[in-house]
Write a structure and sequence with these properties.
alpha/beta, 8-stranded mixed barrel, 27 strands, about 45% helix
Length: about 700
C-alpha cells in the first residue's frame, strides 16, 4: 500500500512546497486539505501515515480539527502541528491530548520538515509490518521477528497490561537484555525504573496510551538492568483491533552520540576553544543581561577590556604555537585573579574582556594593576620563555553609559589611551579622553585626503652661531592649514600621521620642499656663505629600507650640495633600534649629509652607542633650557651635555632660547649654536635670505 500524507494548509503554495519535500523522501502520495472540515472528511475516507496540520486556518482551527478527527475516526493517524508557538507548554499539552505527536516551528525549514517526514515514514513502514503481524499472528509468529530484527531502531511491542510481548534484536542490544528476558517484563523496568507504581501509572506516557493516543518524545530516558540509563528518542503508537485497544508499539533510538554532538556544538557556539573562556557572542549575551538587570535593579558593574602588547611580533618571531600558549596561560591567570561573580571572555586575537560587579575605582585600580602585573610574568612554550605586557581599559555602568555599544566603546577608548600613555598600564574612561580620540580621528580622516601642496607649507626657524651671533642655518618646520580643521599644530597631526602610516608621504614632501627652498637661497639669492637647512625625520622613517634612497633622490633631483642638508633624528628614535639607525646614518654621512640628535637628554642614550653614532650635533632639549636660572639640576644637565659633546668632537645646539639670561648662560658654557623666539621666530622661506644677510653685517655679540 502506497503511504499517504495529508497536508492541511489554506495556502496552496505551502502545500506545493511541503509535498515536494515529502516526495523527496520516498514515493509518498500527498493529499491537500485547504481547511479543517475537508481534512476531517479526507481522514474518514483514507488511511494516512501522518497528518500535517496548520494550527491557524480559516473556519476551523487546528485543535478543533484534531478533536473532530479523534472523535469521528477509528485509529486516527498521528498529527504533527505546524505553529508559530511550538514551544508553548500549554499548547503542547492540549495538542498531545488531541493526538499530536510532534510540532514544527514556523517558518518551516526544508531540513526540519524532511527529517520529520522521514522519521514518520520509516515508522509507518515498521508499524505496517508489525500491524500485519500482530493481526495475523498476535505478535507471536516468527516471521514478524525476522522482518523487524533487521531494523536499526529498537522496536518493542506491549499488551494492555504494559507488559512487553515482543522485542527485536536492536531493542535487545540497546537495552543489553536477552530477548527472552525482555519479553514478559514490564515497560516500567525500562521506562520508569526510578518511579514508584503510582507515579508510573500517572505518567504522561501511560495516560496517553490508555486514552488510545500516540505520542512522540525527542528526549527521554530508558534504563538497562545494570541501573545505567541512557537518552533515547521514541514514538509510541497505540494498536487497535475492531476499535478495541489491544496493545502498542514503541520504536526508539539511542541518542547518546547525538547529545554528545549537540553538547559539543553548544560548547563551540559559546566557548573560545583555545582558552575555554566565553567567546565574543556569549560575552555580549552576558553583557546584555547585566545591563538589563542593572537598569531594572539599579545595580552597577564595570567592564574591563584587556589586550596584549606586540602580540603579532610574538607570533611572527616565535610562531603561532607560542602565541597560542601565551593566550591559554593568560586566560588561566585571569580566572585565578578575577573577583567573585565576574565573567571573563576572549573576544578574539589578543583581546580579553571582564565584567565585574566591583565599581569602586580604588578596587578596580588594584585589579587592573594585578592584571598588568600578571601579564608581565614569564610564559613558557616549546621550551621557550616569553615575556609580554598589556593594557587595561575600564568603563563603569551606568556612569559612562547604560547602552551596550557605547559602554564597550568607552572601555575600548580607555584601553587605547592606556596604550598611548606608554603601554603596560590601565586607564579609566573619561569624556576629555573621548574628545581627544575624536579629534585624532578627524585629523586622521583629513590627513588621508589632504592635498599636500595646497594645505602644507614650511616655515623656517633660524639657527645662530652663539659665538658670532650670525645666522648659520635654519630648521624646516611643517605647518598644516586644513580646510576643515583649520590650523593644526605639528604636535597633534605628526603622531596621527605616524599611527596611520602617512608619515612617509609627509616626510617626502617636506624633504623636497625644504631642499628646493635651500637651493633657491644658496643659488638664486647668491649668499656668500652656504646656508644649511635642518630637516626632521620621523622614528618610523629610519626603519624604512627606502629612506636613504628617498633622501638622496630628493637632493640629487634638485642638484643640491648634500653638505647643505642636516638631518635631525630624535634620541628615542635612535635608541629604539640603534643598530639600524647607525647603518642608516652612516650611509647618509657618506654623502656629506650632516646629522644631529634632537631632544637630547630626554631619552636614555647609551654612551657606548653615542661613541659610534655618526652624528655631528647634539640638540639640548628646550625643557632644560627653559629652566635656566630656575632649576640648578637642569643647568647641570646642560653643562654636562656640552662637555660630553665637546669631548666627542660634537657641536651643541640649544633650542627654545626665549630670554637674554638663557642666551648669556649658554654662551658662558661654550654652547655652539642656538635657536628660539628670543633670537628669531620661525619665518617664511622668502624671508630667510634677507635675514641671513642682516645677521652677517652685525658685529659679533
Amino acid at each position: 500500500m502506497q503511504p499517504k500524507l495529508l497536508i492541511t494548509d489554506d495556502d496552496p503554495t505551502s502545500f506545493f512546497i511541503l509535498s515536494a519535500i515529502a516526495k523527496s523522501v520516498a514515493d509518498i502520495e500527498c493529499d491537500h486539505a485547504p481547511d479543517g472540515a475537508t481534512a476531517v472528511e479526507l481522514v474518514k475516507k483514507n488511511s494516512y501515515f501522518l497528518i500535517v496540520l496548520d494550527y491557524l486556518m480559516p473556519g476551523m482551527d487546528g485543535f478543533t480539527c484534531a478533536k473532530k478527527i479523534k472523535d469521528e475516526v477509528n485509529s486516527p493517524p498521528p498529527i504533527m502541528f505546524v505553529t508559530g508557538n511550538a514551544n508553548d507548554a500549554e499548547m503542547q499539552r492540549q495538542g498531545y491530548a488531541l493526538g499530536a505527536v510532534d510540532y514544527l516551528q514556523k517558518p518551516v525549514t526544508p531540513e526540519a520538515f524532511c527529517s520529520k517526514v522521514q522519521t514518520f515514514y520509516r515508522l509507518f513502514q515498521h508499524n505496517q509490518a508489525l500491524v500485519d503481524s500482530l493481526c495475523k499472528e498476535k505478535m507471536k509468529h516468527d516471521a514478524r521477528g525476522k522482518l523487524l530484527d533487521y531494523s536499526g531502531e529498537g522496536i518493542i511491542g506491549f499488551n494492555t497490561d504494559l507488559i512487553i510481548d515482543y522485542a527485536n534484536v536492536a531493542a535487545s542490544t540497546l537495552l543489553t537484555i536477552p530477548a527472552e528476558e525482555l519479553v514478559s517484563s514490564s515497560l516500567k523496568d525500562i521506562m520508569a525504573r526510578d518511579k514508584n507504581e503510582e507515579q508510573w501509572w500517572q505518567s504522561d506516557f501511560v495516560q496517553n496510551y490508555l486514552d488510545g493516543q500516540n505520542m512522540h518524545a525527542d528526549s527521554a530516558t530508558f534504563w538497562r538492568p545494570s541501573g545505567e540509563f541512557f537518552p533515547v528518542t521514541f514514538t509510541q503508537t497505540a494498536m487497535f483491533e475492531n476499535g478495541k485497544l489491544i496493545g502498542g508499539i514503541i520504536a526508539f533510538q539511542d541518542i547518546t552520540e547525538r547529545m554528545l554532538i549537540e553538547r559539543r556544538l553548544e560548547s563551540l557556539a559559546s566557548e573560545d576553544q583555545l582558552t575555554r573562556l566565553l567567546n565574543r557572542r556569549s560575552f555580549y549575551e552576558v553583557l546584555t543581561t547585566e545591563i538589563e538587570s542593572g537598569l531594572r535593579n539599579n545595580k552597577t558593574f564595570s567592564l574591563l577590556l584587556i589586550d596584549i602588547d606586540n602580540f603579532k611580533a610574538i607570533n611572527d618571531n616565535f610562531g603561532h604555537l607560542c602565541g597560542d600558549a601565551l593566550l591559554e596561560q593568560f586566560g588561566k591567570r585571569l580566572q585565578e585573579i578575577m573577583p567573585p561573580d565576574s565573567t571573563i571572555a576572549r573576544l578574539g586575537g589578543d583581546e580579553f574582556a571582564m565584567i565585574t560587579r566591583q565599581s569602586s575605582k580604588r578596587v578596580l585600580k588594584n585589579l587592573a594593576m594585578q592584571i598588568t602585573k600578571t601579564l608581565k610574568l614569564p610564559y613558557f612554550a616549546n621550551g621557550r620563555e616569553i615575556y609580554s605586557s598589556g593594557n587595561v581599559g575600564i568603563a563603569l555602568f551606568p556612569e559612562h553609559s547604560d547602552e551596550i555599544t557605547r559602554l564597550v566603546s568607552a572601555a575600548d577608548t580607555a584601553m587605547y589611551l592606556a596604550k598611548q600613555n606608554g603601554k603596560d598600564g590601565f586607564c579609566f574612561f573619561n569624556e576629555s579622553a573621548q574628545k581627544e580620540l575624536n579629534e585624532k580621528f578627524l585629523i586622521a580622516v583629513n590627513l588621508r585626503k589632504a592635498n599636500y601642496n595646497r594645505e602644507f607649507h614650511l616655515v623656517f626657524q633660524p639657527k645662530f652661531n652663539l659665538k658670532t651671533m650670525k645666522m648659520a642655518g635654519a630648521e624646516a618646520l611643517i605647518r598644516w592649514n586644513s580646510p576643515t580643521l583649520g590650523s593644526v599644530p605639528p604636535g597633534k597631526f605628526i603622531p596621527v600621521a605616524e599611527s596611520i602610516g602617512y608619515i612617509s608621504d609627509i616626510t617626502q614632501w617636506a624633504l623636497k620642499k625644504a631642499i628646493h627652498d635651500t637651493k633657491v637661497w644658496n643659488e638664486n639669492s647668491r649668499l656668500n656663505i652656504p646656508l644649511r637647512v635642518a630637516i626632521n625625520a620621523s622614528p618610523l622613517d629610519l626603519k624604512r629600507g627606502t629612506f636613504v634612497k628617498q633622501v638622496l633622490d630628493a637632493i640629487y633631483l634638485d642638484r643640491l650640495n648634500p653638505t647643505w642638508i642636516e638631518l635631525e633624528v630624535t634620541e628615542s628614535a635612535v635608541m629604539d633600534d640603534p643598530e639600524t639607525a647607525i647603518q642608516v646614518l652612516k650611509k647618509l654621512k657618506q654623502h656629506g649629509i650632516r646629522v644631529s640628535i634632537d631632544d637630547f637628554g630626554t631619552g636614555y642614550s647609551s654612551l657606548n652607542y653615542l661613541k659610534v653614532l655618526p652624528v655631528d650635533y647634539l640638540k639640548v632639549d628646550q625643557t632644560f633650557v627653559k629652566d635656566i636660572g630656575i632649576d640648578r639640576s637642569d643647568e647641570k644637565i646642560i653643562k654636562a651635555i656640552i662637555q660630553l659633546a665637546h669631548s666627542l668632537d660634537l657641536k651643541v645646539i640649544a633650542e627654545g632660547i626665549e630670554t637674554v639670561e638663557q642666551l648669556r648662560y649658554l654662551q658662558a658654557l661654550g654652547c655652539d649654536y642656538g635657536q628660539g623666539f628670543y633670537l628669531s621666530h620661525p619665518v617664511e622661506a622668502e624671508e630667510i635670505p634677507s635675514l641671513f644677510r642682516l645677521t652677517q653685517k652685525q658685529p659679533n655679540s
